[in-house]
Specification:
Layout: H1 3-6, H2 12-15, H3 30-58, H4 62-73, H5 82-95, H6 103-106
Amino acid sequence: MTDNASHIEIPPSFLQLYVPSGRSKPTAPWAQVLADYELCEDMAQMLAPTAADLQFKLGVTEQDVIERCYSGLRTEPCVLHEAQSRWVVQRMAEILSWPWQNLENVVKT
């Protein structure tokens, strides 16, 4: 692990993807969790301006954009697994200050 990696704080919402209920340790090696987090955070940061632009240009709701972004992330070949895709759109919504608390109603599995 690099010096920079030791300073990265992974949010609890992302760690939950790797720590099953009732357990305290991730199911994947720390280096993998860190690499996955960096990928997902980067994707959310890159999607945010595109999502805001999409909402403006198409005149659709924030929820519509979230659903479209999620569908795009789930298109084969998928780079992320389902839970990571959900986290990315949630994080994207947070970055944009969009409501995301009801994602389970927007993001259909």
